[in-house]
Specification:
CATH superfamily of the largest domain: Reverse transcriptase/Diguanylate cyclase domain
Structural class: alpha/beta
Strand content: 15-25%
Radius of gyration: 28 Å
Distance between the termini: 80 Å
CATH topology of the largest domain: Alpha-Beta Plaits
Bound molecules: guanosine-5'-triphosphate
C-alpha cells in the first residue's frame, strides 16, 4: 500500500517491523537478508526524518517497491526446507545421454549396449559394486539400468539408495511376478522392464514422465523487472529441476519465448515499462503463443482486479511474497499439464513428432528469425526407402514400429532446439536452426549410417531400414516455399541416384537446372 500511497504512520510501523526483523536475523544464519533489511531501514528512516518532504511516487515506486519486494520475498524463503521429496533427483543430471547398465556380460547385454549407442547414448556396462560406485562418483548418468532376479543379497539392492539420490534407477528382470515388482517398488525403482530388454523399450521409459523431465527439464520464463527477485524465483525453481530463464526487459519476451519455448510464463503484474496485462495481451495475440500458461505474480490482493485478469486469459495468480512451496507446486503442475496437452495438440499421434501444419507455422517463424539475425538455417526432408516392401513383407504394424523407431532415433540424436516433424506418411521434415548446409550434410550422413545399423524387429524376424535425405539452406533460398521446394527436389535426387544417401542443394546441380539444360 505504501508503494501506491504515502502514509507516515504506516511507514513508521513498517520501520519498526523491519528493525525487529533485523534484530532477529542477526542471531540467525540469514546473511542474504541483512543487507536488504539495512537498505530498507535506511530508506524509511530518511523519509521519516525529512518531515516536510513527502517521497514522490517515482521514488516509492522504484526504491521502496524494490527493497520491500526483496525483503518480503527473502524473508519468506529464508530457512525454508524446499520440498526435497517433490523432485527426488534435484538438479538436471550431467549426462542426459549417459546410461550405466548393471548386468552380467552376455550377448543380450552387448546387443543392448550397441543398439543404445546407435540411438546416440553413451553406455557403460558394469557388474561390480565398486566399479558402479566409482562410476557414479565420476559422472551422474541419465539413469542406471540394473538387471536383477531379486535373489537375496543382490549387491544392487545395497546400492539402490545411493543411486536414487543421484538419478533414476530402472530394474530389468526375467521375473515379473508381483513379488518381484513389489521389491522393485520398495527399492525405489523408477521403472520395471522385462528381460531381455529391447533398446527402444528402454528409451521410451527414459523419455516419459518424471524421467523425461530429468532429461528435458520443464522450462519456465520469469518476467520480472527486478533482477534480484527474478533471481530468487529462478533459484527456487532451479533447485527443483526446472530450467528458469529470467527476463527483465519486457521487449525481449517475444524473442525469448520463441527461443526458449517455455512451458509456462511467470510474470510480474506491475512493471514500469509495460505492465503485465499489456504484455500478456501481446503474447495472446500471437497464434503460436496463445496457449502458453501465464501466471501473474503480484502484491495485488483485490479480487475484482484478479478476476479481470482471468478474463484476459491469464491462468492464475500468485500473491507476493510467495511461499517457495506454493511457487514450486503451482508452477510445476501447470507447466507439466501444459506440456502434456500441447503434445496431444501439435504432435502426430503415432510418432509423437510435430505434425505437418505445426511444423510449417514454426518453420515460417524460424526462417524470419534467421533472416533477421543473419543466421544459418537448414531444412532436411527425409523419406524411408522402399517402405512399401516393409509393409508388404512384415505387415503394417511392423511398418508403424519402424516409423516410431525413426522418430525416437531423430529425437535422441538431434538437438532439443531442432524441429522434427512427420511431414506425411513415411516422410519427415527437420528444421536445423543455426546450421549451415555443409554441417547439415555431415550430421545427416552420420545419422543415415547409424540408423541403417539399427535392428528393426517384427515377431521373430529382424531387418534393417534405410532412408534418403534432401537438404537445402537459407543461403540459397529466398523464402520458406523455396526452401521446402529445394529440399524436396534434393530428396527426389537422392531417390533417383539409388536411395540410402544424402543430397544437398546447389544451384548448378538442381534437378530443375538439369532439366533446363537437358531441354
Ligand atoms: N505402416 C505404415 N505405412 C505407411 C504409413 N504411411 C504411409 N505408409 C506407407 O508408406 C508406403 C510408401 O510407399 P511409396 O510412396 O511407394 O514409397 P516407398 O516404397 O517408400 O519407396 P521409395 O520412397 O521410392 O523408396 C506406402 O505403402 C504407404 O502405405 C503409416 O502410417 N504406417
Amino acid at each position: 500500500m505504501l508503494v501506491t500511497r504515502w502514509d507516515r504512520s504506516l511507514a513508521a510501523h513498517l520501520l519498526s517491523l523491519v528493525s525487529n526483523l533485523e534484530r532477529y536475523i542477526q542471531g540467525e544464519d540469514a546473511a542474504q537478508l541483512l543487507p536488504e533489511c539495512l537498505a530498507l531501514r535506511e530508506l524509511l528512516q530518511l523519509w521519516l526524518i525529512q518531515n516536510d518532504t513527502v517521497p514522490g511516487e517515482t521514488e516509492r515506486y522504484g526504491a521502496l517497491r524494490h527493497h520491500l519486494g526483496i525483503v518480503s520475498q527473502l524473508a519468506m524463503m529464508e530457512g525454508r526446507q524446499l520440498l526435497p521429496e517433490y523432485f527426488s533427483g534435484g538438479l538436471m543430471q550431467q549426462g542426459p545421454h549417459l546410461v550405466y547398465l548393471w548386468m552380467p556380460p552376455s550377448e543380450e547385454a552387448h546387443n543392448l549396449s550397441e543398439q543404445l549407442s546407435c540411438y546416440g547414448f553413451m553406455v557403460q556396462t558394469m557388474y561390480q559394486a565398486s566399479k558402479l560406485a566409482q562410476a557414479l562418483q565420476e559422472a551422474t548418468p541419465a539413469a542406471v539400468v540394473a538387471y536383477t532376479d531379486f535373489t537375496p543379497g543382490d549387491p544392487i539392492m545395497a546400492l539402490a539408495d545411493t543411486i536414487r539420490g543421484l538419478c533414476p534407477l530402472l530394474f530389468c528382470s526375467p521375473r515379473y511376478d508381483f513379488e518381484a515388482r513389489l521389491q522393485a517398488v520398495r527399492a525405489g525403482a523408477a521403472g520395471f522392464l522385462a528381460w531381455p530388454l529391447l533398446a527402444h523399450e528402454l528409451i521410451d521409459n527414459l523419455n516419459f514422465g518424471d524421467l523425461g523431465e530429468k532429461r528435458d527439464p520443464l522450462r519456465v520464463m520469469i518476467v520480472e523487472d527486478m533482477a534480484s527477485l527474478a533471481g530468487l524465483y529462478a533459484n527456487v525453481l532451479n533447485s527443483h529441476g526446472v530450467d528458469a530463464l529470467q527476463v527483465t526487459d519486457p521487449a525481449r519476451v517475444l524473442d525469448g519465448i520463441v527461443q526458449f519455448r517455455p512451458d509456462l510464463i511467470l510474470m510480474d503484474m506491475y512493471m514500469p515499462e509495460c505492465n503485465g496485462m499489456e504484455l500478456a495481451q501481446i503474447i495472446r495475440q500471437q497464434r503460436l503463443l496463445d496457449g502458453i500458461p501465464i501466471l501473474f505474480l503480484s502484491v495485488e490482493k483485490r479480487q475484482s482486479i484478479q478476476l479481470d485478469t482471468l478474463t484476459l486469459g491469464i491462468d492464475g495468480f500468485l500473491t507476493k511474497p510467495v511461499a517457495p512451496e506454493e511457487l514450486v507446486v503451482t508452477v510445476i503442475n501447470r507447466a507439466r499439464r501444459y506440456r502434456k496437452l500441447r503434445s496431444y495438440m501439435i504432435n502426430d499421434s503415432l510418432t509423437g513428432l510435430l505434425n505437418h501444419s505445426h511444423l510449417y507455422a514454426q518453420l515460417e517463424y524460424e526462417v524470419l528469425r534467421a533472416k533477421r539475425d543473419q543466421r544459418a538455417l537448414s531444412l532436411v526432408m527425409l523419406d524411408l526407402d522402399h517402405f512399401k516392401t516393409i509393409n508388404d513383407s512384415y505387415g503394417h504394424p511392423a511398418g508403424d514400429e519402424v516409423l516410431v523407431n525413426l522418430a525416437r532415433f531423430l529425437k535422441e540424436r538431434l538437438r532439443r532446439s531442432d524441429l522434427i516433424s512427420r511431414y506425411g506418411g513415411e516422410e519427415f521434415a527437420i528444421v536445423l536452426p543455426g546450421t549451415r548446409q555443409e554441417d547439415a550434410l555431415r550430421i545427416m550422413n552420420a545419422m543415415r549410417q547409424a540408423f541403417s545399423q539399427i535392428e528393426q524387429r517384427s515377431n521373430q524376424q529382424t531387418f534393417h531400414q534405410t532412408f534418403s535425405v534432401g537438404i537445402s539452406s537459407l543461403a540459397s533460398a529466398e523464402d520458406t516455399t523455396q526452401l521446402v521446394q529445394q529440399a524436396d527436389d534434393m530428396l527426389y535426387q537422392a531417390k533417383r541416384l539409388g536411395r540410402n544417401r544424402v543430397e544437398g542443394y546447389s544451384p548448378e546441380q538442381s534437378p530443375l537446372s538439369r532439366r533446363e539444360s537437358e531441354a
